[in-house]
């Protein structure tokens, strides 16, 4: 695996290697990330992973400083998975000047759910992803980029960005890798204490219960969501939202659509000081 830090090094490493398949990450890699890399191998001649903890997508009150940075272990996992090129820019390599131009996603999609609770999050994500795409794909004329469904709204925002800017990049979604008890794998799971880890499966269970209730129980969706949030609170969690949405636009479904429409239930909740997200299509 070739390790590159600057944009020039990356582009040199990519020269004459064929179509890249790119997996952007913030590091602290786990089996979910590695499943993206395996998928990448099916979509490109050369696989590129990036590790960059992007300050732009964190609120000042969030965990940018404490976000786990596990360089040696990440490199070992990527090597074992057969990654060809790792791009790990330092902040000054990616942002040699302050990033004054930003990519502002459509508020109808980006100011709801995660965007409501993390204002500016998707502007930070879109800006860094656009920049990473430019680093990887500008000299190759396009390729594929792989994202996890675990970050459902992020994947949708990026799909829209690529379509709207006519970027020659195929966006591939990969299903969520889970622990045996159903907890979605996530770097932030490492913040959980042993006792919290025992309660952690309650989030995915709450999403399953809400999905089942939405399909079968008549009555108001807002009531079902409030009941699900209350049940999660009773298990020690503090939910930001548990919400049933239409898959294609993440807006609430009309009552008549509950029985048949393609839906997704999305949730974000805090256990102690750890905030996790998850979702389930149904
Ligand atoms: N369990 C998972 N299954 C599949 N893909 C995943 C999983 N967890 C993360 N990913 C994907 O890996 C990519 C990089 O994500 P990131 O580095 O933020 O990891 P993360 O585990 O989501 O971290 P965090 O805990 O900070 O949310 C994203 O496309 C994300 O959706
Ligand atoms: C896409 C991403 C790498 C941008 O920083 C990040 O949001 C993530 O890891 O999901
Ligand atoms: N996996 C999403 C990155 C973040 O929460 O900042």
UniProtKB/TrEMBL annotation:
CDD domains with a match to the protein in the record: PanC (cd00560)
Q: Which reaction does it catalyse?
A: (R)-pantoate + beta-alanine + ATP = (R)-pantothenate + AMP + diphosphate + H(+)
Q: Where's the active site on this chain?
A: 33
Q: Where in the cell is it found?
A: Cytoplasm
Principal subcellular localisation of the protein = cytoplasm
Q: Which UniProt keywords apply?
A: ATP-binding, Cytoplasm, Ligase, Nucleotide-binding, Pantothenate biosynthesis
Residues given in the record as ATP binding sites: 26-33, 148-151, 177, 185-188
Residues reported to bind (R)-pantoate: 57, 154
Gene Ontology biological process terms in this record: pantothenate biosynthetic process
Q: Which family does it belong to?
A: Belongs to the pantothenate synthetase family.
| Oligomer and partners | Homodimer.
Described function: Catalyzes the condensation of pantoate with beta-alanine in an ATP-dependent reaction via a pantoyl-adenylate intermediate.
Tell me which NCBIfam families the record gives: panC
* The protein, known as: Pantothenate synthetase
Q: Which organism is it from?
A: Comamonas piscis
Which gene name belongs to this protein?
A: panC
């Amino acid at each position: 695996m070739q390790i590159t830090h600057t944009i020039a090094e990356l582009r040199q490493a990519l020269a004459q290697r064929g179509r890249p398949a790119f997996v952007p990450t913030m590091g602290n890699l786990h089996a979910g990330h590695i499943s993206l890399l395996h998928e990448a191998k099916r979509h490109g001649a050369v696989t590129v992973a990036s590790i960059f903890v992007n300050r732009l997508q964190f609120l000042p009150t969030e965990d940018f400083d404490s976000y786990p940075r596990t360089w040696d272990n990440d490199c070992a996992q990527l090597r074992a998975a057969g990654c060809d090129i790792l791009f790990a820019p330092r902040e000054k390599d990616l942002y040699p000047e302050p990033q004054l131009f930003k990519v502002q996603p459509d508020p109808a999609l980006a100011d709801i759910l995660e965007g409501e609770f993390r204002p500016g999050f998707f502007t930070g994500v879109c800006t860094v992803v656009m920049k990473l795409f430019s680093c990887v794909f500008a000299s190759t004329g396009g390729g594929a980029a792989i994202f996890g469904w675990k970050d459902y709204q992020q994947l949708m925002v990026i799909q829209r960005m690529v379509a709207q800017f006519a970027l020659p990049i195929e966006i591939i979604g990969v299903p969520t890798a889970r622990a045996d008890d159903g907890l979605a794998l996530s770097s932030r799971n490492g913040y959980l204490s042993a006792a919290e880890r025992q309660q952690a499966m309650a989030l995915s269970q709450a999403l399953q219960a809400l999905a089942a209730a939405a399909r079968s129980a008549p009555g108001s969706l807002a009531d079902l969501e409030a009941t699900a949030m209350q049940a999660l609170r009773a298990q020690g969690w503090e939910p930001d939202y548990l919400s049933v949405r239409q898959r294609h636009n993440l807006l609430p479904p009309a009552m008549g659509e509950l029985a048949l429409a393609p839906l997704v239930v999305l949730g974000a909740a805090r256990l102690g000081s750890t905030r996790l997200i998850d979702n389930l299509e149904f």
